[in-house]
Amino acid sequence: MAATKRSSAWGGWPACCLILLSFLFVSISALNEDVIEDVNKQGLEKLLEEHDYVAVLFYTPGHESDLALKELENIDDDTDKFEIVFVKVNDKKLAKQYGVASFPALVYFRNKTPVIYNGNLHEEEKVLDWLTSIEGLEVADQIEELNEQLLERMINEEDNVAVLYYKEGDKKCEAVLQELENIDDEADALDIKFVKVCDPDVLEDEDFADDLPKLVYFRNEIPLLYEGDLSDEETVLKWLTANKIEGDVIENVGGDMLDDLIEDEGDVVVLFITAKSDKCDKVLKELENIDDDTDKHGIHFVKTDSKQLAKSYGVDEFPTLVYFEDGIPNIYEGDLMDEDTVFAWILDQQQQETIENVNAEILEKILEEEEYVAVFFYNDKCKNCDTVLAELEKIDDESNDAGIHFVRTNDKDVAKKYGVKGFPKLVYIRNGEPLVLMKMVNESEYVAVYFYKKKNCPDCETILQELENIDDDSEKLGIDFVKVEDDKLLKELGGKKAPALIYFRKRQPALYPGDLKDEDTLLKWLVSGKESGNDEIEDVNRNSLVKLLDNQKFVAVYFYDKASGESAATLRELENIDDEAEEQDIQFVKIADAALAAEYGVHQLPALVYFEDKNPSVYDGDLKKEETVLAWLIKQRHEDTIETVNRDILAKMIKEEDYVAAYFYPLDCGEECDKILHELENIDDDALAFGIEFVKSSDTHFGRRFGAKKFPALVFFRNGEASLYKGDLMNEEELLEWMTDLDTMESPDEIEDVNAALFKKIIGQQENVAALFYNENAKACEKVVEALETIDDKAHGADIDFVKIHDEKLAKSYGIHAFPALVYFKAGEPTIFAGDLRKAANVLDWLLDQKNPDSEDVIEEIKGADLEKLIETTPNVAVYFYSSKDKESDSALADLENIDDDTDTLGIAFVKTSDTGIAREFGVKTFPALIYFEDGEPSVYDGNLKEEDEVLQWLTLQKNEDTIENVNKQILEKKIDEEEYLAAFFYKPNSKECDKVLEGLEKIDDDLDEYGIDIVRTHDPQLAKRYGIKAEPALVFFRNGQPLLYPGDLKKSDQVLSWLTDDDNRELPGEIEAVNGKLFNRVLNENDFVLAYFYEDNNKECSRVLLELENIDDECDGLGIDFVKVKDEATSAKYGIYEFPALIYFRKQSPIKYDGDIEDEEAVLKWLTSDQTIDIEGEIEEVSKKMLEKILVEKDYVAVFFYDKNDKEGEETLNELEEIDDEAQNLKINFVKIADNKLARKYGVTSLPALVYFRKKYPAIYRGSLKEEEQVLEWLRKNRYKHPELSFFMYGIGAITGAFVLYTIFFMVCLRDSKKHDLTKKEL
């Protein structure tokens, strides 16, 4: 009795649970109800511009409208499926424009043409039928336009549909359309629905997409293509009429249309016939008696006289009947004149689980199209075949669901091709390759496979006969011998073409190198291979290794050099552990392929790489210690070890994997690193479960590149971006928590892709999670992901974690069976989004509603750091600055809240703030004020804030157009201080001239952005006077705060752009100009000599070096070298720069890296004019005037070619002289060229081109023909080695000077003697 009571008590629980579940379901359904979106006038106009089909419910607040709205919301999702946008509007004035006199009323817009619904709005099913039926679409004297969904519905529901496929805007299509609209009413009278389609989604699936227009008539869903002249509408009408009358016959369908029918429809019967055949005509007449019966069962019955199509299905006898189920053909083998038996067979094919019977041609076609095919081979004499077939037919449907096509055949030639000797036999084929062979290779230790061809191979049959002589001997030796006709597999295994023989020893393939006609030698090779194979590591090639890694989980690969003695010695040691490795299920192979080794980062041979699930780990110990190697392999195989990788492998993983954790440790670290590694290996599997690849590397230099300074260290990479872990590496649980935290894994502007384990962790820890379930191979999913990534940051800003996941099993657990799908998890409880996922703004609104279901529709208040973060992280933000004590602020706010929803639709976050501190930062002194921020750049609204429509129009313009931001004095001064390049346009309001100039400047706004130049506009007369502006409009260019007034015509925007980006206007004395990536490319294109300083922000060394280098900026300018600084990551990476600072000199865009002391500016300056930077092999170097002067001071022997860049003769001469540039270098003569006519005249050159040789600064002009380069070289050689000689003139001067000196001496001596003589006389 007690037991009975307990049973009764427990028996009530299921009922209670059912009631509770029903209640929960109803509650959740109530929360999930879809509502028709409310739009205003502007919103409706925008929808009509963007969508072909829009249904609008015009309503007024009241009981009647509420009832109609409640009913119509039941079909909102259904209209979405047909791409009909359903909205509601509360605007009487707008409703009257469309002829609405009473409310509620439904107006349906097709391509902006309105039609008012005259039925009962409370009968939502009838409303839906009207919206999606041809009647709802009909427009007088026009062929109705349909989208993909409506076309599909019409073809499915209507018996007779004529579809014109055309291309919008195409003249030929438009002309045909105009003609055919003349017979639209006649087609209606015949009860033929005449429609047109230009939807790209429909056209791309049609074979005739490149040959439009085309007309297709669908009779009971069977397509018939019109092949006449479409511009002859009368003939088209006759053709439609004829096809309408012949509705009770089996339709004749052409090749492409038949292929489409077979592909699109589940059940199709095709009668293959030939024209003018009495037998075919008789069979056709009989079978037309069952045409209507097949239609009733949803089976399409058609005929075709296409011989080419028949041949493709192996049909060579006519008539032949073939039944296609989901594209798989089954040939009828009975009497076609017995229509009742034929009909019974057709129904049996449709209703019973039968395996299709195919011939050789059909099987070949199936194998080309399908990846997995199971073929059941049988013959008519086989006793067990029917029994086995009956069993196999029980799993036919399950096989189809698994993507495996099951067929049967009794074709002897096909059986022989696949090595089938006895019946019944089942062969499983993947991508055309029979898995019988691979099964044998996996099960037998020794298999010899002969690859041959039946056609175009004269030797194949001869060799086959020879090989059959050793088949028995091979079998006695335990070697299985098979033959295969498979070129693709042969090439994968390293062979080139048939005939060829591949010998598998323990699953390792080896190509026979000898003569296949010599069967005795071949047998000896097989025997020796079997005997030696027990003690040798198998040799493989690249293709074999790739296949091995695909099929085997644990593989050890020994990379070696055949010519290396060390490789051979190491190999002998490793072959001692080959068997032990095999016992551990580790496949041990060797390969002599240095290029493949390099792909895995192995550059020094020999080397050993262990692969587990294709993931490589490099052995870094002594390979000759085989016992240690074996212990390492066993440890890798059985323990949770973190793989060791080198730099190349790690770089490849960072590039290819979403998440990588890299543990960097120094080799001499010792016990500390071992302890940490032991802890980290405890979470290796957990990390992998979350989709994180965990590796270790001793390349600390590589680790420093990602911010690691002290080792050991851990760097986490997400989609290539590095994050350094700053916590305790011994606390592995804390590390795992950090790595799997969504903030760590998050990438900006991208929805994080997570796996099931990480997803469950996130929804278990986070309060609000949005999860997009998607199919990675579906284009529709790609578009949705792209759309939703535009709201990822906004969702994150609202504390909603947004992730995406492709896991079908997990999706089904939440009731999701179609992709893409969005599910919102609030505290782990799921709610599925039922709207259009491509409308990101609507999705964001829904997410915010799910997070705060009771929130009011007001402009949100944000202050302080939250507001600054919003402006910084959100692309489009409108901020209303107000004072809580100001009545005008309250009044304007009430008006602006009317457009809050509209700004949401535009994708603009509208917020308000009374934070006076932030207001002052942006120069707001009077309240209220409105500033729009685009990517953080402010633009001030200077209109009336109470005119909300004007405000919305202004915000729309700012969001959708390329407008120049309007700023006040404080914002402009802040920008001048902070930005390197800023263009400020000073204007006057209500000035036509200023408006015209502004329109031109907005055309170059994007171009200036690309060059790193910000442009703004401002109306501030006092500020204009400060910069010497006397009248607006005017443009001032600020370079690091220094102003430069534009002197030209502002109406010519192209000239303004050239002036702003000109090198001369960018340059400032004593300062190195900063350029972005695009501007740097322009500098390189426009200047032959460019010195680039690559640096990064927040780097003290970079700042210190920059101060030193700015001391030589003017000297570089003097040398004609444009000195710039670059901090663009992409540009740095392009030239292989990853460590900063760095200095590169570009001569005609050829980079030369400076390896000296970068802080020694004098050494840098000297290097710029050194031989290292000036010499270009095979080319005479271009120099500037200052460079030449410096070279003449520093070099004793210089040859200078003066030329004119626009002179063809100069170019031709230059080409000749460059032939002797290297010889001049050998003579230690510096050969340079310069295009400077003025400088040439200074050295006595009267015409160009000319050659001047400087010997210790003294010039000599070459007077011969410059095109005779050998003579020029000889002249240079003579001038280089001649001794100093004096000319006649110098001899003359010397002689006169000598004579004068001698005369002076003579005179002085004689005069002194004369004086002495006179004195003597006097004394006497």
From TrEMBL:
Keywords, sorted A to Z: Coiled coil, Membrane, Signal, Transmembrane, Transmembrane helix
Protein name: Thioredoxin domain-containing protein
Organism: Hypsibius exemplaris (Freshwater tardigrade)
Signal peptide: 1-30
InterPro entries: Thioredoxin-like_sf, Thioredoxin_domain
Transmembrane segment boundaries: 1288-1311
Domain Thioredoxin: 344-472
Domain of life: Eukaryota
SUPFAM superfamilies per the UniProt record, alphabetical: Thioredoxin-like
Pfam families per record: Thioredoxin, Thioredoxin_6
Coiled coil feature spans: 140-193, 1210-1237
Gene3D superfamilies: 3.40.50.11390, Glutaredoxin
